[in-house]
Give the backbone structure.
Amino acid sequence: MAEKFDVIVIGGGPGGYVAAIRAAQLGLKTACIDSYSGKDGKASPGGTCLNVGCIPSKALLDSSKHFHHVQHEYAAHGIHVKEAAIDVPTMLARKDGVVKKLTAGVTQLLKGNKVTFYHGTGTLAGSRQVTVSPVDGGTALQLSANNVILASGSVPIEIPNVAFDGEYIVDNVGALDFDHAPKTLGVIGAGVIGLELGSVWNRLGSEVTLLEALPDFLALADRDIAKLAEREFKKQGLDIRLSTRVKQAAVKKKKVVVTIETADGESELSFDRLLVSVGRKPYTEGLLADDSGVRLTERGQIEVDEQSRTSAPGVWAIGDCVRGPMLAHKASEEGVAVAELIAGKPAHIHFETVPWVVYTDPEIAWVGRTEKELKDAGIEYRSGTFPFAANGRALAGGQGAGLVKIMADSETDEILGVHIFGANASELIAECVVAMEFQGSSEDLARIVHAHPTLSEAVHEAAMHVDRRAIHRGN
Ligand code: FAD
Ligand code: AMP
């Protein structure tokens, strides 16, 4: 007999494990099935985010930033360090330690909340019957539930004629584990992942070239911010080539030879390693039996309505395998919302206030609409900016690059978009998300007391600048 649950979650990433914990908190008998295995071959819940995404990339960004600062920033403070060296295996071991701690933490949280965890692949059939095929090859188990949440995540997109080989041509997994800084690193796609991992190896000494098919740098970001960021990253040594489409890549004599197409025609470039980071696609392999009743979209996403219901009754889907931005916090919020809907509570996600962050140095963060989106929609707005170069805390910390830009409705003054390029932008954006969630105005932000000296004063001053009454800049 199939063991019966109130809720079965398939996938244990930030979407799935969060949904499972919230469902259990709400008193529902919950199971979570995840197939990911850590480097030790054991279960490692946390999905892409904890194992090979958000967390390990941030660990390496932090290590490489220290190395960069020792070499390039300390002298200005009067600190002289002779012959700084990077021990890449130690750096990777530290990163692996962080991952291990967090994935073990998720295991504990699932246990603490009485979620039954299965290390295996879950396959959904009709009437919410789920088969678990254990990773260790043990006998398959049959489960069933009143509700099933699909949270199977995403995998890297592979481009034609550029096959991953795990050594020379790699995806994020490989680029998080290079055992030394390659002398030259090519990166296909100057998106979020390409910029973050390109920055890591650039700081550790690699010559990094980013090959981007689109003519615009960071096409999703606000143009003012993207332009500033492009200039700053080029200064840091990243060779960013726009309107450059990669046609193919092949390993020849321990080098990756890449064929690119630009306005000047086709040519070849050669690198020691190549990172392919051209985006991710939903992962649904082995997830759905023929009779599951779950429909996919043309793009391979699981089709869902606004509240994450699929085409099969009692089956929900969240995170990277459905529409919307592929961001961990979006997946988690959907997980919480679905668990609450299942428990009969109201839940709603405001997709328009999901913040975006790129963890470069300085960081890029935004929420709401870009200037181009406002113009295209014919919305009248006023805009205020404030440069970090005029912020005391930023200067004291050697972080004077970048700016805050706020746009507010001309008539109502409601904040419509905030775009930040600067130190700690990932944290500064939170205040702006709260303001937008409360339909706050630029005047609201301008009238709130901000501690001095803090980077958040730049947000304050940008809000005041919307009304041309900033104190520490010309209006
Ligand atoms: P996933 O995290 O992909 O988890 C899905 C899980 O389900 C996996 O463990 C998978 O093995 C398992 N699974 C799949 N199918 C089955 C099945 N049939 N049975 C059992 N288990 C199954 N986002 C941010 O918000 N901030 C960042 O800083 C950030 N940095 C990133 C850096 C990199 C290098 C990468 C690659 C991604 C980054 N992301 C970041 C994106 C983020 O990782 C994803 O948006 C997030 O992990 C999506 O969560 P999810 O739960 O939908 O899927
Ligand atoms: P992201 O989705 O943020 O990871 O960004 C992926 C980037 O890769 C996008 O900016 C795409 O334009 C870019 N891209 C996709 N295919 C190619 C290609 N063949 N050559 C160069 N860039 C590409």
Q: What stands out?
A: The two ends are 73 Å apart (CA to CA).
